[in-house]
Amino acid sequence: MQPEGAEAHHRALESLYAAAPINRLFASTLSIPEPGVARISFEVTRDHYHAAGAAHGTTYFKMLDDAAFYACNSLITDRFLLTTQFNLLLTRPLSAGPVVAEGRWVNGQRRVFVGDARLITADGEEVARGTGTFMRSRIALASLPGYRSA
């Protein structure tokens, strides 16, 4: 049985995320358990490290932005959102191991959306958080090759 409605949209967004070429560099899995919530599971490896032996800031930004973005995009079915602003707070160095980026929709329903996200290590420690502003683009989700139901 094929998913319908919001569930079908969420599965299609998960497929879109998996199809993004950037995720060949950041092996990760997106799940959208409910509208306005997104989780990205990933593994930090030494390949993500800067010269001082911890994860580079690009890792923090990419995962926080994606989690907040998909939490917000889970609420609209017609258009792809674009990040217009993102603020980061990095509280601890991130070393090798499993991490989850938890994203949540905060505000907005029409043109501009606000979402936040946090990175949580396997031992439950928050190492970063971020808040983003996202706006509707002119890009129809249905026009993107990766956007399809499982």
TrEMBL record:
A Pfam match: 4HBT
Lineage top rank: taxon: Bacteria
Ranges for domain Thioesterase: 53-128
Organism name: Sphingomonas olei
Protein name per the record: PaaI family thioesterase
Transmembrane stretches, start-end: none
